[in-house]
Design a protein that fits this description.
The complex is a heterodimer of chains A (309) and B (319). Chain A is mostly helical and 309 residues long. Chain A contains 16 helices and no strands. The chains are: A mainly alpha (309), B mainly alpha (319). The interface between A and B is large, with 113 and 119 residues.
Chain lengths: 309, 319
């Protein structure tokens, strides 16, 4: 089963672009359907699903630029559009709250945790796939199991552990605990990539006197760059998305990450809060969407390569 | 470059017997150990140890700031009589079953649609995945606003169309709240299921469909006897993960309802957070999260072994 995924991982473009891959390149039978039939059976349901999937984002973006008086009065102004957009909510968010600080925290935590995890995973995956030390298969299996342990059953004991280690309420609490989510995932993904690199290349290097470390750095890593990018993008997204650890381990406002800060610090009693709340949600998701837009293929290959929600 | 280095080294000294140190440096087991160290440190300190500690805590009466004494199964006995806990188990099971089933159905349908010939195919697929990219908390806040009791855009639209006369209280009514959070979960999960199944669909050769059509198969038969069997292995993996992460969901519920109204939407994860962190009873919270483990194992086993039988159809050995 994993091998089937690995084949797909090694060819991420196929997932996004190919219309009819496989041994034969026939066109399929879609030309047999008439246009009206396709309209009803294909475009209509697809359109409905797309509208439902995208509407919350449209609503989020629209709310964040609507002036206050239009925000709550649906009768006088059409709720689905605004002719006089305002940046008041966004400005309020950026200059009157700690939002830039939270954004910075999130970025810092996500980058550090991702870098640590990828470093550790590269070594682990290489050792499991290529050094094949005694018991490597069992370790591989254990890592896959670690990957199935959800954060929501770990956060209670972890909070006591974090407290014991004296990390409570510091960014290190998150930087050091996020790798537990990321390492199993990225090790699993990178194991798939390393398996696709021909073993002969390493044998040549060994005969030429290269050490294992030199082989890893000079031969395997350059060849596994697509895999590293996939792992990086996916890990970064997971960090940005993480909520329960950040909610539990961080209590002072200055160290909070965007998701936690929006839920705990930004929700006040103001009835016009919706504008800045939505602006916060929109700006908080923008970096990920931009990153995703540039690396769609890598992202999809990471997702299908090591399935995780 | 390596050649040059080697040559100069050979010039300087005669060929030596490898020392014990040299042998150690090429020993697989020894090197493997060192390569595993960084990952092992993290996984043992922050994953394996807390996992064991969580089970231990569930047998103690630990509170925040006070390490507890061993009290045996008392936490669990107490939970058995706790109606809130029973409700949360019911909610978790309802939430997981309904959401996973619908996610699977809609996700598979969307994957089939996206597998057709379409203009702007790549763009469409990229756009579909956006709900999965955006942090759950942030889209949950958008849903919170969409479900607002007074200014819900859904209530407003339905009123304009004349289908209802008063606003729907999405998150204030027990069953409404349950269906609303389930909907939000489905909304977030469908893209993931669809895109992963799409990857599987693309490995199915179109000539199979052509052959079946010539033999007189209806569209339903083509789906039932070609697409579905060939897709089973991927469905098994996707649904295992989907069930796993729906079952342990925390973010959506916590942002939208915090378990309310009157504990009607508490999942086991949110209840354990409330008991352990907000109320301070670590032992009891740990008991709730430990109680999730058997359910999780059950869900994994069912979806794994129930659906994995047809491995050989993918051309793999039937082990």
């Amino acid at each position: 089963m994993t091998d089937a995924f690995i084949q797909k991982v090694s060819d991420p473009k196929a997932i996004l672009n190919a219309s009819a891959p496989g041994p034969d390149s026939s066109e399929g039978m879609s030309y047999l359907d008439s246009l009206p039939r396709r309209l009803v059976t294909l475009y209509l349901p697809l359109g409905i699903i797309l509208v439902v999937l995208l509407f919350p984002f449209y609503w989020m973006a629209l709310t964040s630029i609507k002036p206050d008086e239009q925000l709550l009065d649906f009768e006088k102004y059409s709720p689905f559009w605004t002719w006089n957009p305002t940046f008041k909510h966004i400005a309020k968010l950026l200059f009157d709250t700690d939002y830039p600080r939270w954004l910075w925290n999130t970025m810092l935590v996500a980058t550090c945790a991702t870098a640590i995890s990828i470093g550790a995973s590269v070594l682990a995956a290489y050792a499991i796939v290529r050094l094949r030390y005694r018991g490597a298969q069992w370790v591989g299996g254990a890592i896959f199991l670690a990957y199935l342990v959800p954060p929501s059953i770990l956060f209670i004991p972890l909070s006591t552990v974090v407290f014991q280690y004296g990390l409570f309420d510091t960014p290190f609490a998150l930087i050091l605990t996020y790798p537990t989510i990321l390492i199993p995932f990225s090790t699993w993904l990178l194991m798939g990539y390393f398996k696709t690199i021909p073993f002969e290349l390493e044998e040549c290097a060994l005969i030429d006197g290269a050490s294992r470390w030199q082989i890893l750095v000079k031969i395997v890593l350059p060849l596994a760059i697509p895999g590293l990018i996939s792992a990086f993008i996916f890990c970064f997204t997971l960090c940005w998305n993480e909520f329960i650890y950040a909610l539990t381990f961080i209590s002072s406002t200055q160290y909070k990450t965007v998701p936690v800060a929006i839920v705990t610090a930004l929700v006040d009693g103001d009835i016009y809060r919706w504008g800045s709340l939505m602006a916060g949600a929109m700006i908080g998701s923008l970096p990920l969407v931009v990153l995703y837009a540039f690396f769609v293929e890598h992202y999809v290959s990471a997702m299908t390569g090591a399935v995780k929600e | 470059m390596t050649d040059v280095v080697l040559k100069s080294r050979l010039d300087k000294r005669p060929i030596q017997e490898p020392t014990a140190w040299d042998r150690l440096m090429v020993n697989r087991n020894w090197l493997g150990l060192w390569f595993m160290v960084p990952a092992a440190i993290f996984l043992i300190l922050f994953l394996a140890y807390p996992l064991g500690l969580g089970v231990w805590l569930s047998f103690t009466d630990a509170k925040i700031g006070r390490s507890g004494e061993f009290i045996g199964l008392e936490n669990y006995e107490w939970l058995m009589d706790d109606s809130t806990f029973i409700t949360s188990v019911f909610n978790t099971i309802l939430y997981t079953t309904v959401a996973s089933a619908i996610k699977f159905a809609v996700g598979l349908y969307l994957a089939l649609l996206l597998n057709e010939r379409l203009p702007f195919k790549a763009v469409l697929r990229a756009v579909v995945l956006i709900p999965f990219i955006v942090p759950t908390v942030l889209s949950a806040i958008a849903f919170w606003w969409i479900y607002d009791p007074q200014f819900s855009i859904i209530s407003w639209s339905l009123k304009k169309m004349g289908w209802i006369s008063t606003n729907i209280d999405f998150l204030g009514d027990v069953w409404n709240a349950r269906w609303s959070v389930i909907f939000a979960n489905i909304w977030r999960g469908v893209p993931f299921v669809a895109i992963t199944l799409l990857a599987g669909l693309q490995t199915v050769s179109p000539s199979l469909y052509e052959a079946a059509t010539i033999d007189g198969a209806t569209p339903w038969q083509r789906f039932r006897f070609i697409t579905y069997p060939l897709l089973t292995p991927i469905i098994a993996v996707v649904m295992t993960f989907s069930v796993l992460f729906t079952f342990t969901d925390f973010q959506l519920i916590w942002v939208m309802t915090r378990g309310g109204p009157v504990n009607a939407t508490h999942l086991m994860a949110t209840l354990s957070y409330q008991r352990a962190i907000l109320a301070g009873s670590l032992g009891e919270g740990a008991a709730i999260s430990t109680a999730m483990i058997p359910f999780l194992l059950g869900a994994i086993l069912v979806s794994w072994f129930g659906l994995q039988r047809r491995k050989w159809q993918q051309g793999e050995s039937n082990d």
